[in-house]
Amino acid sequence: MGGIAFPMISMCDLPFSEIATTKWTYGDYAIGFSREWGLRNGFSPVWYCNNGSRVYNQLFKMLIETIEHEEKGYMGMAMYLLSNVKFVQAPLVTKNRKFKNYRFYDEREYRLVPYITETDKHEVMPYLTEDGYADYKKQIGHSRLDFGVSFEYSDIKYLIVNSESNIKDVRKILSSSPEVSHINIVTKKDVMEDFIGIEHNEEILPSPKESDIEATLRHLNRMTQDFKQGWELIRKSKNNIEK
Predict the structure, then answer these.
(1) What pLDDT digit, counting tens, does each position of 13-49 carry?
(2) SS3 per-residue string spanning the chain
(3) Rounded to whole angstroms, how far apart are CA atoms 133 and 54?
(4) How far is 56 from 63, CA to CA, in rounded Å?
(5) Is the pLDDT of residue 228 over 50?
(6) Residue of 31, 37, 39, 47 whose CA lies nearest to 81
(7) For residue 242, is pLDDT > 70?
(8) How far is CA 233 from CA 9, 85, 223, 240, 241, in A?
(9) What is the rounded distance in angstroms from the CA atom of residue 147 to the CA atom of residue 118?
(10) pLDDT of 241 over the 60 cut
(11) Based on C-alpha coordinates, what's the Rg of the chain?
(12) pTM of the predicted model, to two decimals?
């Protein structure tokens, strides 16, 4: 059985400190939503598993059995469970980049997959085979659907754009909407250069010369302490003998 494509909306639950160290695999722009908005709209973490693991094998077995027994209701549930599973790592091909073995686990993906009743309402297939998905993209030209999740400006916390000129363009577009004044707009370069200070715990290592001096001082301190302890023991022993 080949790959299966599901309609979905995917996001990453990453703090800025981790965004700054990612590969920017999917592009140079990002929209940061509030966690409350995501939970309110039904987003939840995907279930990461390894290909061939017990969990994956059981899910696949459940799907095969429901297909063989023509249990349509259970098949829908089995497919929905499968749509929320992702391999820890696997090959990845995007519009501009290719990865032999990309580690999806590091993305901490949150996903929203529509129910079959929702896809039926919009006359969209609830899933496609790998070949079917390739044909779909050839016909449509992209993989975007005409329905999704609505949001308000208040749900947006920040925007990451590619350049300083992009900031001016975005502010110009949003200038007619006073409710967007709270949104922070920063560039990818700002994030990569640690504008929130993720390097604040960088350790300053001593030079080799300083290391030698420090090692000598530590040795002298240990000898001094040992001498004090030895002298204290001698003093106590002498006092006990005199008594």
Answers:
(1) 887 767 765 557 777 888 999 888 999 999 999 999 9
(2) CCCEECCCEEEECCCHHHHCCCCCCCCCCEEEECHHHHHHCCCEECEEECCCCHHHHHHHHHHHHHHHCCCHHHHHHHHHHHHCEEECEEEEECCCCEEEEEEHHHHCEEEECCCHHHHHHCCCCCCEEHHHHHHHHHHHCCCCCCCCCCCCHHHEEEEEECCHHHHHHHHHHHCCCHHHCCCEEEEHHHHHCCCCCCCCCCCCCCCHHHHHHHHHHHHHHHHHHHHHHHHHHHHHHHHHHHC
(3) 28
(4) 11
(5) yes
(6) 47
(7) no
(8) 73, 67, 15, 11, 12
(9) 10
(10) no
(11) 29
(12) 0.69
- Scan for tokens 């007619």, then name that residue: 176
Nearest alpha carbon to residue 171 among 162, 180, 158, 163: 180
Length of the chain: 243
Two structure tokens written together for 15: 């703090």
Longest dimension (CA), the chain: 104
Structure tokens given for 127:
């899933």
The angle, 0 to 180 degrees and rounded to 10, between the axes of the packed helices 54-68 and 72-83 is: 150
Burial of residue 191, with CB atoms counted within 10 A of its CB: 0-12 exposed, 13-18 middle, 19 or more buried: buried
